[in-house]
Amino acid sequence: MEILSVDTVNRSTAGTAAYYETVLGLPVSKEIGAVEVTVGRTVLRFHEDADAAGDQHYAFLVDDARFDAARAFLTAGPGLLGDGDRTEFEAQDAWNARSLYFPGPDRSVLEVIARRDLPRDLGAGRGAGAKASSPPASGTQPSPSAPFGPGDLLSVSEVGIAVPDVVGTADRLAAAGVGRYPDGSATFSPAGHIDGMLILVSVGRTWFPTSDRVVGEPPVTVVAQAGPSSPGVVPGRYELAPGRVLVVRP
C-alpha cells in the first residue's frame, strides 16, 4: 500500500516549512496557512490550525545501505530520540526492519525506517527485484559512506492515526485486503504492508520512544494505492474515525 499523499493540520506551518526545508533539505511549497512537503514519492500537506491538540508521527523509508549515513546525519542535526541508552531499534521478525527516531516540527515524532524485504527497484536507479538489503548496482546508488541527503528519503512509510477502536478498525481494513501485523494490541496495531502502513493507536498513548509526545486526533486523509508488495488491497474510501480517512486508489 504505497502512500501517495497525506493531508492534515498542525499548529505552525511556518515552523514546519522551515524544519523540512532547512533541517532535512526537502522540497517545500508554501502558501498562506499551508505548506506542502515532498518526501520522495509522497506529498505531505499541512494546513494551519493553532488549536490542534496532540502530536503526530511519520516514518520515512530509507535504503538499508544508507542507514548508517542517516544515523550520522540525524545525530549531527536534529538529534536522535532514545529509550534509555538505545537510539537504534530493531523491529520484530515480521517487520525485518530497523529504525531511528528523531524530533520533528510541531512536537512530531519522526522516524527513518529501513525495510530489508522491500524490492530495491522502489528507489531511483535500483535493479528490479533486488532487495533493499542487497548491495547497490554500480553507479546507481550513493556508497554507504556518502553524505546523507534529501534524496535518500524515498517515501512516507508510516502514518500514525488515532482511532477509538484499534482492533475493530484493523479488522475492517484487513477485510479490505490491508495487511495486519502480528504484534498488535488493543491500543496499537500496524495496518498495511512493507511498502506503506498506518499505525493505528488509541488516543492518550505516547509516541515511542518518548514519554511526552501524546497521540492527538487531527483530521487526516491518507491517499494510497496497491503496490507490488500489496496487490490484494481493495480500492475504496475507508473512514477510520471522524475526520480520519484512508483512500485507496485503483
From TrEMBL:
This is Catechol 2,3-dioxygenase-like lactoylglutathione lyase family enzyme. Residues 129-139 have a biased composition (Low complexity). It comes from Promicromonospora sukumoe. Keywords: Dioxygenase, Lyase, Oxidoreductase. PROSITE patterns: VOC. Residues 121-150 are annotated as: Disordered. GO terms for molecular function: dioxygenase activity; lyase activity. Residues 2-115 form the VOC domain.
